[in-house]
Design goal:
This protein is of the alpha/beta class. Helices cover 41% and strands 16% of the residues. Helix 16 packs across helix 17 and helix 17 packs across helix 18. It is globular.
Length: 467
Amino acid sequence: MIKVCDTIMGTGKSESAITLVNEHPDERFIYISPYLHEAERIKTGCTSVRFVEPSDGIKEYNYTKAMHTHALIAEKRNVASTHQAFKFYTKETLDLIRENEYTLIIDENVDTLSDFEISVGDLMMAVEAGYLEPVGDTYRVINTSYDGSYFHDMFRMLESRELIKAPKRERKQEQDYFYWQLPIDLITAFKNVYILTYLFEEQNLCYLLKMHNIEYKYIGVEKTHDGKFHFTDGPSYIPEYVFQLPTMIELVDKPKLNRIGESPHALSMNWFNRCTDDVKQLKNNVYNCYSHIWKDQPKEVRMWGTYKNCRNKIRGLGYTNAFVVFNEKALNCYRDRTALAYCANPFMNVGRKAYYTASGITPNEDLYSLSILIQWIWRSAIRDGKPIKLYLPSSRMRKLLTDWMDVTTNLASSKGVLTTAEVIKGIEQKKAERVIEMDPLPPANCFIKRNQWDRRLRKVQAGKENN
C-alpha cells in the first residue's frame, strides 16, 4: 500500500512518521531523506527502535554504502539513509526487502529521472563493443564480463537503474536526451510506502507511479490534544501561519525592479544564456535590494538563489555567501533568513517533458515551477512562522506565488479544510479568470474566436459554481 501525505509545510509530516515508527517497534523501516543530517531527527525521535546509517568507510563492505545497506537489510535492521544512496539499491537488495517486508518512508520527492552525465560517444562505444543493446528507448546490459575502468561508473549505475533515451518532441530538435530512470521495483518491493511531500501530483515520483498504473492513497495529519501528530485518513491539521500567508511574505513591489521579469520566459535558464545586458541589470537589482531597500537587514539573514551555473553572474558584495540553489529542498540550516531574492523562472527540461508526454503524462509546468519555488522559500524563517521579505522579479513566478497564497488562505479560512486538490483547482481557476480579463470579447461576426471565448467563459463560470 502506497500512502501519500501531501500536506502543506509545517503540518507535522515528519512528526507523524516518528509516531508511526514508535507505535510499530516490531516492524522494519527504511527512512530516506535528501540529506543525511535530516535523518538524525528520525534517529533521535524514534525511541522504540534503533536506526542505522550505512557507511562508506568499512573495508568489509568494499567502502560502499550500497554493500553495507545490503548487509544491514539482510540482518533486518532499520536503516536511515539519503535519496542518493537509495538510488543504488540493487535487485538483490530489493529481493531482501521483499522477503523481510520492509516499510519505506520517503521524506520529500525522490528524483526518479536524473541526467546521464556520461558522454553519448562513450555510450555508443559500449553498444558497439557488445556490452549494451538498445531495446526501444531503453539500453540494457547484455554482456556482464566487463572488468575494466573506462565504463566502470556506467555499469555500476546500470546495476540499479535503467538508461533511457527521451523521444524527440520536434523534428527540428537535433539533440538527444538521455536519462537514468529508477526502476519501479524500488517502490513496489516494499510492503508499505509513506511519501511525505507537498504538491505531489507534479513530482516525478508521482509520474513514475502513473506510468506504471500503480495506485496510491492520500492521507492527512492529525494533531491530538496532547500535541502529538498522527497520520489520519481524514482532513489534515492546518498550521496557524496559513491563515496569514499573504501578510507573511512581503514582496518587493517596485515596477523599476520588477520590469526585468515582465516577459513570461524572463529569468529562465535560456534567458540567462541569451540576455547578457538584462542579467547585469538583474544583478544590479539584487544589489539594490540588499544595499538600499533592505539596508537594515544584516548579512546573516540574507538568502538568494538562482541556477547553479548562473551563480557567478548574480553574486555581489554583501550577499555572495548567502547563496542557496534555486531548487533546494529539505535543508533546515537557513531557517533564520528573512531577506530573500529568488532569481529564477524554472521550466521543465525539454527532454524530460518529451519523455513524460510520450509516456502518457501531461506535466503542469506552472505547478511544477510553483512546487520548486515554495520548497526554496520554506528553507527560510517562514518555516518557523516568521515574516519574510522577498524579491521575486519573474512576473510568472510572482503570479503563481500570489495565486497560491490567496487560494490557500481563503480555503483554510472559509472551509476549515485544506486539500492539495482544492488548492490546485483554485489556482487553475484564477489563471482562467485572468485569461478572460486579458482577452476582450471578440465581435459577434468572428464566429470562431467568439466560440473559443465563450467556451473559456463557461469553463470559468463552471469553476465558480463548483467552488
